[in-house]
Amino acid sequence: MRIGIAGITGRVGRLLVEEVLAAGATVAGGTTRSPEQAAGLPAGLPLFTTMSALAKECEVVIDFTHADTVASSAQALVGTGVAWVLGTTGLSAQQNQALRDAAGDITIVHAANFSPGVTLVRRLAQMMGQALPADSYDAEIVEMHHRQKVDAPSGTALAIGQAVALGRGVALEDVRESGRDGLTGPRKPGAIGFAALRGGQIVGEHDVLFTSADEQITLSHRAFDRRIFATGAVRAALWAKGREAGLYSMEDVLGLPPL
After folding, report:
1. Annotated binding site for NAD(+)
2. Is the pTM of this model over 0.90?
């Protein structure tokens, strides 16, 4: 199996190279904006400047690049038969639409986080959102990441919040509360709150809290190494080969039944 890696010279891209090889697959090459940073990659590994060029060399592309590239990458992959494993977060409505349109032609696995543990936390958060009434149980999501992270809340935290909102039958944008500061007034009924902490070199920590007047339930996930994201993405790539066109999630890769 030939797997291409978008952003191959980046931090996650290098881990993906190692995990693809460890899985017994072939690294077909990768895209990069900085060929001079290729030191340390396997000798002779083909490097490309466009997704179109990479797609000609592989069966699946793993992509952890930037949301700004999603629409152009979707356009480049449509009609190629190449599956697309996408870990990019922070997509706009237009970019999400480009993804859905492309899924009519190619196999796409899109996840905010490819960790099996986070996938299960999201599933449990949805179940708890469905089972615990919003007027009795306040939902809060706390995340902490390394000091270099530029977005908040994290894409994973938002994905967990979306799972809670789905369980409650509401749209996250209608009930989301982030960054409380000053005289905010009492907590809004049914709100899903977010708090973002930054410091050190923490890979990723997420806590989901459901708190009533009588009890509190907490779901926690700690990532100790970024490699878990690469390992999960390669697992998704191996799963995606030969699948029918469509938009899939990590829950599909893990074989979880629909709720």
Report:
1. 7-12, 87-89, 111-114
2. yes
